[in-house]
């Protein structure tokens, strides 16, 4: 087996492939690392055939959907997953063929209703069902401590003790252990009574993951995160530096339209000399009156550079093929000591 483990903070993703046929599967990819996974697959001569989420993640943004569009390969999840974009839904005991390898799905609800573990040769990818020295939490949507107890003690922990476990989370830099080692030393697994186990899980008092509502929006219904919207806009527009804009102000022949997309009060408190005000919220509805020439060179700025990037992407989508965004924004312009005008538009 060809095996790569990729950490994103405490989240672990795995790329594994058949050494003979080079068919590969990517397990629990995180959206900010897509280029990293593809580079590793290319380096190892692997062809990704399956994109697998072990469960609906509440703490990171799944990259399966985006990669699936890019690579035209199926997103694999458990049959009970709510994600509308899952193409291939596995039931307990069902297998995927990966070259000469077999990936067997074990339905292990508890952390979430749709949690599954994946057994492949001498390993088992445990998702958030079993972690090194811990287990997944059961207090997030669809979590169930008694179901986790059954999944662990009546299913996962009855597998061969020599199997290596590869969890979806590891915060202390340990790479893997075995089922046997976890049975012997994992503190949560020493609580063998189901009710006592459930009580322990109910009283952990863990804090909520930082991006939980956004992660569920992305992972359960296939929406986009704010970071993803910004990354896509950033990749689709050209940028102009503060210095280039400053130099442009001194050019009497410049035809550049400088567009301030902040709100009116911010504009009146201080704007780039000669800038026009067109707040982001009114952009689409006022653009026809304000910008009649779609070939006009337009520079868009806001306070810090995020809204202007989104606005520039919108303008380019609407046909303003020469719209560019300012690299950073009015705050940096002021900090640089460049000229500022106050008051309303002439
Ligand atoms: Fe999770």
Structural class: alpha/beta
* Percent of residues in helices: 25-40%
- What is the count of β-strands? 19
Could you describe the largest sheet, including whether it forms a barrel? Answer: 6 strands, mixed
What keyword list fits this structure?
binds fe (ii) ion; 6-stranded mixed beta sheet; Oxidized Rhodanese, domain 1; Metallo-beta-lactamase, Chain A; 346 residues; 19 strands; alpha/beta; 2 domains; single chain
Please, could you describe this protein's structure?
- The strands form 4 sheets. The chain has a 6-stranded mixed β-sheet with strand order 1-2-3-4-5-6, covered by helices on one side.
- By secondary structure, it is an alpha/beta fold.
- The protein has helices at 34-43, 64-71, 145-153, 179-185, 194-202, 212-221, 226-235, 242-249, 264-269, 283-290, 306-317, 330-335, and strands at residues 2-8, 11-17, 23-27, 47-52, 75-78, 88-90, 95-98, 101-107, 116-120, 123-127, 130-131, 134-135, 164-167, 177-178, 239-240, 257-260, 276-277, 298-301, 323-326.
- The chain has 2 domains: 2-224, Metallo-beta-lactamase, Chain A (4-Layer Sandwich); 228-335, Oxidized Rhodanese, domain 1 (3-Layer(aba) Sandwich).
- A hairpin with a 2-residue loop joins strand 11 (130-131) and strand 12 (134-135).
- Helices cover 30% and strands 23% of the residues.
- It contains 12 helices and 19 strands.
- 39% of the residues are buried.
- Helix 3 crosses helix 5 (194-202) and helix 7 crosses helix 11 (306-317).
- The mean pLDDT is 95.
- It binds fe (ii) ion.
- Fe (ii) ion binds next to loops.
């Amino acid at each position: 087996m060809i095996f790569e483990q990729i950490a994103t903070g405490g989240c672990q993703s795995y790329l594994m492939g058949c050494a003979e046929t080079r068919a590969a599967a990517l397990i629990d990819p995180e959206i900010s690392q897509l280029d990293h996974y593809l580079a590793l697959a290319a380096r190892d001569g692997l062809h990704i055939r399956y994109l697998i989420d072990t469960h609906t993640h509440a703490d990171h943004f799944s990259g399966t959907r985006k990669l699936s569009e890019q690579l035209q390969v199926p997103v694999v999840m458990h049959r009970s997953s709510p994600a509308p974009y899952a193409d291939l839904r596995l039931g307990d005991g069902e297998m995927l063929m990966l070259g000469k390898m077999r990936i067997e799905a074990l339905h292990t609800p508890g952390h979430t209703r749709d949690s599954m573990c994946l057994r492949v040769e001498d390993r088992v990818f445990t998702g958030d069902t079993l972690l090194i020295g811990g287990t997944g939490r059961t207090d997030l949507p669809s979590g169930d401590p008694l179901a986790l107890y059954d999944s662990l003690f009546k299913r996962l922990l009855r597998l061969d003790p020599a199997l290596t476990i590869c969890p979806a989370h590891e915060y202390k830099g340990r790479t893997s252990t075995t089922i046997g080692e976890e049975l012997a030393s994992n503190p949560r697994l020493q609580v063998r009574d189901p009710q006592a186990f459930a009580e322990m899980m109910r009283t952990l008092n863990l804090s909520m993951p930082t991006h939980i509502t956004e992660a569920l929006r992305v992972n359960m219904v296939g929406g986009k995160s704010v970071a993803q919207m910004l990354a896509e806009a950033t990749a689709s527009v050209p940028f102009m530096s503060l210095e280039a804009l400053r130099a442009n102000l001194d050019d009497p022949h410049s035809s550049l339209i400088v567009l301030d997309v902040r709100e009116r009060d911010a504009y009146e408190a201080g704007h780039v000399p000669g800038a026009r005000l067109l707040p982001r919220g009114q952009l689409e509805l006022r653009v026809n009156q304000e910008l009649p020439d779609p070939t006009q060179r337009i520079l868009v700025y806001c306070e810090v550079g995020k809204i202007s990037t989104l606005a520039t992407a919108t303008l380019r989508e609407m046909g303003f093929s020469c719209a560019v965004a300012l690299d950073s924004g009015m705050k940096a312009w002021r900090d640089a000591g460049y000229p500022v005008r106050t008051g309303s538009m002439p």
